[in-house]
Specification:
By secondary structure, the protein is mainly α. It has one domain. The protein is 56% helix and 5% strand. The protein is built from 16 helices and 8 strands. The strands form 4 sheets. It has a two-stranded antiparallel ribbon. A two-stranded antiparallel ribbon has the order 3-4. The protein has a two-stranded antiparallel ribbon with strand order 5-6. Helix 1 packs parallel to helix 8, helix 2 runs parallel beside helix 10 and helix 7 runs parallel beside helix 13.
Length: 429
């Protein structure tokens, strides 16, 4: 998406003005509000119905052989600290958040069912997250391939587009609408869609928040059995929730999740923090998974980084953003569940392999002055080719003058001085 937007700015052939910067701020604010809306949707989707303390005590008592004793023992603790509620599908309410959560319940439930089914198949929650991520990426592989190809084609057309922009500015004298129409005509002639990279980015961002809530609330809940039922049919009979291993003397340990989320000593449902790094205004929780995810996202972004252009400030800005943004995930390491970074690492590795097959090493090298020969001579397995021009010879892109042709045309229109008359200076009257 970022590449497409920067290409549109390049197409206008002007330096960012104050109005452009203000527009960018509004776009950034709109994206932030959209992300917050998605978070609210996911939160409402994963929200469980909170039963009253009396109902919680009754539920705990009904699972105990000695109902009276269990209820009596649970009453003081329940009144002091309410037990966590079982995870249930969101119900439609009067407020908009509940209604939106109810509408998006099928997406959350489908992802949770898929993750639970893979866990039941493998018995390892990390392996289940990895397999689920690979399945999602395989389903959307055609869209992501179109995004990569579109970005590289726009980058290849950037020099020619800059020349076209100069011609458009010369012909239309600052008419932005006409310049934009000519640029769109140029892309249409070359068979390139400027919005081809938007849908995969939106899809990936749209799945990130449901994945976050599935890992944080679904995997860590003591009784998500209600999410296993679709139209009254239990689709996960092999997973028993509450977990029988968590029932001691007829009392359920509601602090322990039904699904085992601990792998190699790491709880994927909780943040994995090696140490806290105080930075003055906040404390950064350093996570090895977050650092690994940031480095892989840096490699992924650098492969598709546009080439440096001295006369193109927007391309330089885009290169800077593609270097800085991947490391933002390190900041999330202190409060995002470890399972989210397992998802990020898996999807980044998948993207790196996919990009390597299409663009090769891309713009990774030279890296700190290192330019290996295997990167210079490498030919990708599926190289990006430019489509055949449509309506060739009819568009402005085909009829514009090249620099040398423009100079020859200008020289041919100058009337030569064949009379060679003497100047009036020095002539006698």
């Amino acid at each position: 998406m970022a590449t497409t937007q920067s290409a549109s700015v390049n197409a206008l052939g002007r330096k960012p003005s104050a109005m452009t910067k203000t527009g960018k701020r509004w776009v950034a604010l709109g994206l932030l509000l959209a992300l917050l809306a998605l978070a609210v949707v996911a939160c409402g989707t994963a929200a469980a119905a909170d039963p009253s303390p009396t109902a919680q005590i009754s539920a705990a008592a009904s699972t105990s052989p000695n109902a009276g004793t269990a209820a009596g023992a649970a009453s003081p603790s329940a009144s002091a600290t309410p037990a966590p509620a079982a995870l249930e599908p969101a119900k439609a309410g009067a407020d908009p958040a509940s209604l939106i959560g109810f509408l998006f319940t099928p997406l959350f439930q489908a992802m949770f069912l898929l993750l639970s089914g893979l866990y039941a198949l493998t018995g390892n929650v990390v392996l289940a997250i990895v397999l689920m991520t690979l399945m999602i990426r395989l389903v959307s592989i055609r869209l992501s391939s179109r995004q990569i190809v579109s970005q590289k084609r726009i980058q290849k057309l950037a020099p020619e587009l800059r020349e076209l922009t100069k011609e458009l500015q010369r012909r239309h004298k600052g008419d932005r609408v006409a310049i934009q129409q000519g640029t769109q005509q140029f892309y249409k002639e070359r068979g390139i869609s400027q919005t081809a990279g938007c849908l995969p980015s939106l899809l990936q961002m749209g799945l990130l928040f449901p994945m976050y809530w599935v890992i944080r609330d679904g995997l860590t809940n003591w009784n998500p059995s209600a999410m296993f039922h679709v139209f009254g049919v239990n689709l996960m009979p092999s997973i028993q929730c509450p977990n029988p291993d968590h029932i001691v003397n007829g009392v359920i340990d509601k602090a322990a999740p039904c699904i085992n989320t601990v792998v190699f000593g790491i709880n994927v449902g909780q943040p994995q923090v090696l140490f806290n790094l105080p930075l003055g205004f906040f404390t950064l929780g350093v996570s090895a998974l977050a650092v690994g995810a940031g480095l892989l996202q840096f490699v992924q972004s650098r492969m598709l980084m546009p080439p440096a252009a001295e006369s193109d400030p927007s391309a330089s800005t885009q290169r800077t953003m593609m270097v800085i943004f991947p490391f933002f995930s390190i900041i999330y390491g202190g409060f995002f569940p470890a399972g989210v970074f397992v998802y990020w690492i898996t999807t980044s590795i998948f993207s790196i392999v996919q990009q390597f097959l299409i663009v090769g090493w891309g713009s990774i090298f030279p890296l700190f002055g290192w330019d290996p020969s295997f990167a210079r001579d490498h030919t990708p397995r599926f190289p990006v080719t430019m489509p055949e021009p449509v309506n060739a010879g009819k568009s402005l892109a085909a009829t514009r003058y090249k620099p040398e042709e423009r100079a020859a045309s200008a020289a041919s229109t100058v009337r030569p001085n064949t009379h060679k008359r003497a100047s009036r200076r020095g002539r006698r009257r």
